[in-house]
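Entry 14. Ran structure prediction on the chain below.
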Amino acid sequence: MSTLKNPWMLSWQEVAESLGVSIDTGLSRPEVNKRRKKYGPNRLRARKRKSAWVILVDQVKNFIILLLAVAAGLSFGFKQWLEGFSIVIAIVLNGAIGFFTEFRATRSMEALHEISRVTAKVRRDDHVQELSAYELVPGDVVLVEAGDIVTADLRLFEASKLRVDESALTGESAPVGKQTTPLQEDKPLAELSNMLFKGTAVTAGSGKGLVAATGLDTELGRISSLAEEAEEEISPLERRLAGLGHRLIWITLAVAVLVAVTGIVAGKELLLIMETAIALAVAAIPEGLPIVATIALARGMWRMANHNAVMNRLSAVETLGATNVICTDKTGTLTENRMTVTRIAMPPEDSGPVEIRSDKEGVGRFFLKDHGIDPSKDGPLGEVLEVGVLCNNASLHHKAGGKEEEAVGDPLEVALLAAGAKAGMEREVLLETWPEVREEAFDPEKMMMATFHKNGGDYRVAVKGSPESVLRACSRIRQNVNEADMTQSMREAWLARNTKMAEAGLRMLAVATKTVGTPDANPYEDLTFLALLGLLDPPRKDVAQAIASCKKAGIRVIMVTGDQPMTARNIGLSTGLVEEQDARVLHSENLESPEALSEEDRRELLEIDIFARVTPEQKLDLIALHQANGAIVAMTGDGVNDAPALRKADIGVAMGKRGTQVAKEAADMILKDDAFATILVAIQQGRAIFDNIRKFILFLLSGNVSEILIVGLALLVGAPLPILPLQILYLNMIGDVFPALALGVGRGDPSKMTRPARDPKEPILASRHWWAIAGYGMLIAGPVLTALALAIHWFGMETKQAVTVSFLSLAFARLWHVFNMRDVGTNLFSNDVTRNPFVWGALVLCTALLLGGVYLPGLSAALQTVHPARNGWLLILGTSLVPLAVGQVWKLTHEDRKTY
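Output, structure tokens:
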């Protein structure tokens, strides 16, 4: 199974020796390169790509190609060689367009899957780095903590309350505990307690391990080498489009049969009528629906990715556009997540806080009542900073060749390391004096973390956590260099001081310590309180505008944070989330489960905008509450305990910077920059994607309906066919591909974000859209038939020239019809269609192709077109602009309508 044989039966020292690595420094870069060449990348089989050959074969199997082949066969059977060969050329062109369009769309979607990758914290060259999991090699020293996805098979050499969900491998639903001692005998996979396996998830605690196996040599690779060969994902939107396309095929075939029967009854030439019926079927069947959906999704998702929003699941894109409630965390989402320790409040109670400021050179200095102090000479302050540095899992070091600091870890812990560094305290140096022997990983229920450090024959315990939790665990308080009993009045006074500092917008943290005789002692009792630390994490500059935009878009923003109520309210006021100074903030202690709420309590909860000290379980209740009220809920999260809420929400949003790997795996979307404004950008794109696909369908079907009406009405009145079979196929290749695709990849109109979200239950085409399709179809068909009649009866043109006029009138009417796809209420000259460069490119290309269909000798002969003459062109221009003019007037006079 692994590079080493049964590493669980060896001591970790033996494993390290066998792998040729020091756990203190890790592998060197040259050694990593050598091992990567030997073992290859740390990955299972890559996602299976859809080959070009498979895509090409799919075009040949296309129902449209079959219909065209029948038409070609009929032409050859009636010895119409020119038409037969022309249809064969149409088959080749139709297949080529379909192939290149689908090929591009497929490759785009495959590339999107490569954007979001799992990372790992690795010690190399004596520094902790965050690297892509693909880069791991046997012998790497890997650090894991709650929320991480294990990225290789590891032999543990350090474990602190480490628990792992191994259900993906063993089927065991409950997380299992881990330890570091060797096993005396070979055991089943589920009982290998000193190993971590690739693909499992760390649910609690922290640990360190040596990579024993990578890639296909891992247990996951041995059990299933196909674990990463995911099935091609099809979104609900694509399935609905496919269903719509299949229904339209049968409707279209029925119409084609009706046209054929009508033509035969009217005494038209059999071959002409059969070819016309087939051509109408080919033109009317929207075979491009799935491809355009894929292209629209791919383009929209690329735009999201370029704006730092990476979609994990294709199926979530449709839901994203309908989101109307965002439950967001505070830290790092509404705030910058650039925490800095700015204030330290230490006993005695009446002393002023120590402030940390930067001088003109940017160097941090410590001040007490505007007098500079030296932490190295101030025992109590030095002890506070030491505890913050020791009780820490982050790393902070200077980049090679410069003063710039490189940090890995939680921003709060990085801030504590930075505060210590300003006082000349480096964690690596402190650990030489105070070696760490045990870590009590952060417990989200206790809201504290502790580390034990060797202190002669005793052990120094360093604790940090929420002020309420730490003060509750303290029985003593440091008074300068002495200690005193912590009375209840003292505790309440410090809680009040904590509230006052939090009201100033600071994130609060408390530190405490004690000395014990054994490393097995309970770290959270009989502690000595040292200080309150205030960390400044200012609101992001773009958050206030983003929240204002959400309100305009009908999106409710709710802050759901684990921070204190006062801090949460301060950020809510500064970002515009709430406007009243006394806006209600609900503490988690007062938040009951939805089942226990009365109807009045439920309504009251639905109106609250800020929830503080919220637990992961309560996030689930809030989501359920708003979903039961009919909302489409997006929920942000970053921790392992947030995973259930991220799954329950309609759109789970994980933080890309500070988020755990478990949270990222559970989420539908990952914010690479952790910024709230990015969610808004993603919602805008989600709305644009759905609207683009709807516009494409409206444009396509209204044009197809117009062709059916034109041919059907002409047959009913005994007029010449206004468009011939090959002309229909030519229009199908021009009008159904280029302008339609251009609509599918538009950026969307920003005005969409000034309107409420659409109803998620609304179908792709509501009844108003079917009426619009019928109306547009008649609006196009009328002028085209008028052009044919005027050409014959007014201008006295021969049939071939008159049919050329009606053919071009229809072609240009369909081209100008693209501008009727703008949203109602948008500017006539500046809207999502006119600002789309692909639309203008498509119009130029299609115009050139239409002119070629008239004036290129070989092509004009196949299409049976002739020069329309000056009167013909005036007629074409006039009649083709009528649908555009009427459509725009209708939009201008019906701006309150919800249609296109």
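The longest helix spans residues 676-716. Will compare against last week's run tomorrow.
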